[in-house]
Every structure is written in C-alpha cells, then in structure tokens.
Sequence to fold (348 residues):
Amino acid sequence: MRPVARLRRVQLLVTGGMGFIGVNFVRSTLAARPDVRVTVLDKMTYAANADSLDGADPSAAGDTDSRVRLVVGDVADAAVVDPLVAEADVVVHFAAESHNDNSLRDPSPFVQTNLVGTFTLLEAIRRHGTRYHHISTDEVYGDLELDDPGRFTPDTPYNPSSPYSATKAGSDLLVRAWVRSFRVQATISNCSNNYGPYQHVEKFIPRQITNVLAGLRPKLYGAGQNVRDWIHVDDHNDAVWTIIERGRIGETYLIGADGESDNLTVLRTVLELMGQPADAFDHVTDRAGHDLRYAIDASKLRQELGWTPKYADLRSGLARTIEWYRDNRTWWEAGKAGIEQRYAQGGQ
Ligand code: NAD
Ligand code: DAU
Fold:
C-alpha cells in the first residue's frame, strides 16, 4: 500500500461521479490537483446528468488529453469493477440510490446498489489492496428529539429508519467487517445534508428553488419542524480529501458544519431570497417515518485531522445556490416536470 499523500500522480476511481456530490468532488479535484487523473464509474441512473462534467478539466485542450474519463457501468457488476479497481490508487465510493422518498416507493434498487454494489467493490478492493474511502450518511444513526442536547458521534448506535438509511447502514457494516477480517485499507465518513450546485431537483432545496423558477409553489412536508444539519457540498468534499490523506485506516469520521435549521426556516429563507411572500408555499403529505432531527458532532475530524468548513453561513450559501439554478436552467429543466408528476401522485 503506497501512502496516498506522497504519491506524485494519483489515479482515482470515483463511483457515482455523475451524481450531485460525486461530480462536485470530481470538478473540485481536477481544478485543485493537477497530478490527479479520475475515472468515473456511473450507471447513469435518473439521478445522473450527462452535462455535469462539461468543462470539468480546466487543463484539457480537448477530450483526448482530458484527465477525466467516464465508464458507464454498474458498481454491482464485478466484471466492470475489477479492472477499474486494479488500475486505481484510491477508490472513493459515492454511488448509491440516495433519496428516502424513492426508497419508500421501491426499496429494491437500494438493496441492489447500496448493499450488493458496496460488497462487489469491497471484494475487488480486497483482491487488489487498493485504498478505499466509503461515503456514508448521518442517517445511519436514526434521528434525535428536537430538544436533545446531544448530537451524533462515531459512538452513536446505528438505528436507521428508512430502506435508504438501512441499506447505507448495512454498507458501512460491510466495510467495517472487511477492515477487520481482511485488513482492507478503508476509511468511512458519515456526512449530514449537503446543498449546492448540481443537486437533483427531487431533493428539498433544489426542488423549492426550481419550483419558484418554474412558477410552481414550493412544497413543505408536514409542519416543517424537521431539522437538518446543512453543509455546503464543497466542505463535504474537502473533508473527504482530508480523510483520504490523513485519516486513520479503519476509522469512521463524521462530517458536519454546525448548520442545523428546520425545514420551514430554510424554505422561508429561499422564498425571501427569491423575492416571494413568506406564505407562498403548500403544506403537503408528510413523509412516512420522517426522521425528526439530524445533528453532527464533527469534533473528531476537526481535532484529529485539523479540518474546518469554509462555508459557515447557510443564508449566503443558499443565495449562491439560487443563482446557480437561475443560471443553469438547461441543466435541470428537462427532468423537472416528471419529478413533480411523481410527487403529485403521492400527494406531495
Ligand atoms: P445522487 O443520487 O445525486 O447520485 C448518485 C450517483 O450514483 C448517480 O450519478 C447515479 O447514476 C449513480 N449510481 C446509482 N446507482 C449506481 C450503480 N448501481 N452503479 C454505478 N453508479 C450508480 O447522490 P448524492 O446526493 O450525490 O450522494 C452521493 C453519496 O453521498 C451517496 O452514497 C449518499 O448516500 C451520500 N450522502 C449524501 C448526502 C446528501 O445530502 N446528498 C449526505 C451524506 C451522504
Ligand atoms: O442526512 C443526509 C441525507 O440527506 C443523505 O443521506 C440523503 O442522501 C439526502 O437525500 C438527504 O436526506 P433527506 O431525506 O434529509 O433530504 P431531502 O432533501 O429529501 O429532504 C430534506 C428535508 O426536507 C426532509 O426533512 C424532508 C423535507 N422535504 C423534502 C422534500 C423533497 C420537504 O419538506 N419538502 C420536499 O419537497
């Protein structure tokens, strides 16, 4: 195993690199790290957008000398995964079915991609001795009461609520078992709710922004009291690099930026920033089993690895995100009507 921090040229394999967090990771990596080459493995599900990598390699004069290449394939397909892992120095595993509401409609792709996909990747990692970073979520810990003084720590017991979070929890446990039993060189991170550019319009913040831009009313589940711990996607990805370079093998790091806010407050901020009346939204059917509150204690990452977030202010981060969706209508417009139709069928 070569120490990653000292490698002159790094060949990265990024699974799910055409989705929201993965593509931001690829773009910021190519911009900041000239010695890194990236292979993206992505199945190009509904959550991927083929335009997201446009212009991603600032050093490339054309497609032929680009430092990024896309392989369209399934992370659960060992024949595709094995040669890609064999040629990589580091694998960062973002690929997943990621939306709770979809997991309530049909859990089956969640089991296949999040569990079987992670298993398939781990077996290739084991064969080739490759450094592996596993991207997970704070949802594995279940939820907290609104007045609970505590936050999630790496010692909080797993208690997932939805098919999505249960499959992510299972995938984390597979990684831990492969570290212990087979000594694979893996780290895990569990992050809170991300926001920023390139996020699919099915998710809370981009759904509300694009509803306003499309002349539709934003939709709030229940009373909007549920709390999420928002972090800008660039802060998440910066923490991932910190863990890849300085994290201890076998360890779990929680990533969060002290960004707790309830959904009603986030929605009212979006409405205000977009020049809309404070009551210009609809209350819709609540999510089944809706987790009440997530909150991350990221002290281990901050103290042990010296990481700090750069985007402290949610309001200004939301303003920049609104600008991005305003400036990039062609990126999101094509899929918007279909998503809203699906939500409407479930009363949401
Ligand atoms: P996303 O849904 O936007 O993107 C997922 C990507 O994975 C898509 O490009 C999709 O095509 C790809 N994919 C799906 N199934 C695949 C398969 N079988 N093989 C190969 N590629 C496949 O998700 P996201 O929001 O970018 O989340 C990325 C990761 O981060 C996930 O593991 C998620 O659990 C985790 N996470 C997300 C958040 C968040 O707030 N979005 C927070 C913490 C952790
Ligand atoms: O905590 C990390 C998790 O954050 C990730 O693991 C998931 O992949 C990611 O999707 C996200 O999960 P959430 O379920 O918290 O995110 P979502 O954007 O779906 O919803 C955020 C909150 O907003 C949640 O309380 C439900 C609510 N909501 C959502 C939608 C889509 C609404 O009120 N209205 C909506 O239209």
Q: What stands out?
A: The two ends are 49 Å apart (CA to CA). The pocket of nicotinamide-adenine-dinucleotide (ligand 1) is lined by residues 15-16, 18-22, 41-45, 47-48, 74-76, 94-98, 113, 117, 135, 137, 168, 191, 193-194, 200 (CB under 6 Å). The chain has one domain: 10-200+230-259+290-313. The chain is about 40% helix and 15% strand.
